[in-house]
Fold this sequence. Notes:
Blueprint: H1 5-14, E1 30-34, E2 39-41, E3 49-55, E4 58-63, E5 69-75, H2 82-90, E6 97-100, E7 104-110, H3 111-120, H4 122-148, H5 151-162, E8 168-169, H6 173-180, H7 184-196, E9 200-203, E10 206-209, H8 212-219
Antiparallel strand pairs: 1-7, 2-6, 3-7, 4-5, 4-6, 8-10, 9-10
Helix pairs in contact: 5-8, 6-7
Amino acid sequence: xxxxxxxxxxxxxxxxAAAKFPGLDDHNWKKQAFKAGDTLFKPGQPxxxxxxxxxxxxxxxxxNDQGRSLLLYRIEPGQLCIHSLINLINDENFSYITSAETDxxxxxxxxxxxxxxxxxxxxxxxxxxxxxxxxxxxxxxxFANHAFVPVENRLAGLLIEKMGNDQVVKIKQSELAIELGTxxxxxxxxxxxxxxxxxxxTNRGEIIISDIDAMLAMAL
Length: 220
């Protein structure tokens, strides 16, 4: 499926740098729609497409043999996936699971076209390597946070971050565990203790924050 003209404008808006590179903005991109929960790329799958995200949110996560998952980073419109970029440059397969967090669509072109742009444009090269560097820094900071900040504090901060105006967090405990890189049982233990203390209420698929000040104090 090819991009419609309106979608091409969206792509230009979220990737303004694309207009600087000859052939990129008006390229004949292919479109792939996805639904929340879809697995887009799996470990071992060949990386043979250069992908730009037009709408939605995608998550890249590591999963071990026991099924435990760790969120590495998210991709939103305007951001590139450093894992796929490195795979394209090094001609390697995917090592991590890439899945859709929301409904949306992405556009793609073949690896050969990506390599042609890399070979013919130093500006395009700079854009790609700058994205790899900045996103890699974010991943390092995320792992440093995991290493030095206790799970309890990170969990409180994550709940505040995802809380809506109604003080409700629409998320499953298993998803919180993936975000934090810990076991679901540990998340459940903290939530149960906080519920007994009157800080929040846990329901199926959601958490209601009762004491925002207390949660903020733990998050800082």
